[in-house]
């Protein structure tokens, strides 16, 4: 028992001498519980919606109110042309477009069936399915309400009458609502993040463990030269990996590439920069490769759960949506789905591009400062 107590004391002493590992051991389950508890939600509410009301009548406003009270549609944009609706949906800013024609009031008043178009972004089948059902049911309920009010005034029964509101839904880009259209671009973005961040995080630590870091210290290289030398091979490898994964996804899962491949590769290279910056920062804090892998976990988990890869962002609490906006993966998933599935051009992706540029500058600058502090 004396030997056993001595061994136990040694193990506990070694554990307590590494407080950072203890923090990760106890914090990771709490982080997983909190993120999964709040983000694991497929009950979609407040779907970003653009409205193109060409009638601007009391009847059209009543129809829009009927859509709003369902809780599924959030009127965040007002369009003044069909092109505005298409651009907002193509860019991913709006997921649903409601178009009310100019003769809507006259059709309702004349007892004719008034047609209303609802365009739904099918690149995310989870959101599209619920938006499709909600739009259909809301249109039917509102039409029935109008019909019952009219028949009540006439003292007639409504069993043989048709609804005065005809909601025509159309799912764009993915009419069959195939989940592969949503998952394959997300998997590509997640794989690129994992490989680039992990490989870069281990780069400096590996040199420190092998003793080659001293050779870098005595050389006249500058910090920015070291950063470029570290990230360039991983950028080239990741671009080649992107082409392979896109090819396999197209062949195996039938996911079309509707946009420009050159644009996609250019934006992929941009997306890799902030991820490589994260990896370089981790490598300057960690002392062992195992510690670097532990430090990467608190970044990987939120990125996977809060970026819209698994669960729709609109179903998350506002605070978690704001956290997701700090993650490069969030913007690149939007870019991938827009370019691959919708064929969107660069002019509609400027907000996502600007966010990635800003994140790349900040993270690589911090990594450069950390290198100077470590090597001096």
Work out the number of β strands.
5
The parts where pLDDT drops under 50 for at least 5 residues are none
Strand order of the largest sheet: 2-1-3-4-5
Helix content: 55-70%
Give me a quick take on this structure.
This protein is α/β, with parallel strands linked by helices. It has helices at residues 2-16, 19-39, 58-68, 82-90, 104-109, 125-154, 180-210, 213-218, 223-253, 261-285, 289-306, 318-324, 328-342, 350-375; strands at residues 47-53, 73-78, 96-100, 114-121, 165-172. Helix 3 links the parallel strand 1 and strand 2.
Give a description of the structure.
This protein has 14 helices and five strands. By secondary structure, it is of the alpha/beta class. It has two domains: 47-172, abc type-2 transporter like fold (3-Layer(aba) Sandwich), CATH 3.40.1710.10; 179-375, no CATH class. α7 (180-210) packs antiparallel against α9 and α13 (328-342) packs antiparallel against α14 (350-375). The radius of gyration is 27 Å and the shape is elongated.
SSE blueprint and pairings:
Elements: H1 2-16, H2 19-39, E1 47-53, H3 58-68, E2 73-78, H4 82-90, E3 96-100, H5 104-109, E4 114-121, H6 125-154, E5 165-172, H7 180-210, H8 213-218, H9 223-253, H10 261-285, H11 289-306, H12 318-324, H13 328-342, H14 350-375
Parallel strand pairs: 1-2, 1-3, 4-5
Antiparallel strand pairs: 3-4
Name some characteristics of this structure.
376 residues; 5-stranded mixed beta sheet; 14 helices; abc type-2 transporter like fold
